[in-house]
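2024-03-11 09:14:02 INFO worker-7 job=invfold-0412 stage=load source=structure_tokens
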């Protein structure tokens, strides 16, 4: 692997990690004072992105009781 390719791969890895951190931050920031989100991350064995479509998912549950319908 050439020096330029190696530098590009390192930069892409750092950019990907930063994008995931900021996406998680935005989700948690927008939910302040409201329902909390649970974030589940699908990292690979080295801590980098796993091969697949989903990097992480955000889940929340509505604990309110449903209104009765007539």
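2024-03-11 09:14:09 INFO worker-7 stage=emit residues=70
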């Amino acid at each position: 692997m050439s020096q330029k390719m190696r530098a590009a791969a390192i930069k892409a890895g750092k950019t990907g990690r930063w994008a995931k951190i900021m996406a998680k931050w935005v989700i948690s920031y927008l939910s302040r004072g409201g329902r909390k989100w649970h974030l589940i991350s699908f990292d690979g064995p080295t801590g980098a992105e796993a091969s697949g479509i989903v990097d992480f998912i955000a889940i929340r549950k509505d604990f309110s009781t449903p209104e009765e319908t007539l």
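2024-03-11 09:14:09 INFO worker-7 stage=report msg="Residues 62 and 68 are 16 Å apart (CA to CA)."
2024-03-11 09:14:10 INFO worker-7 job finished
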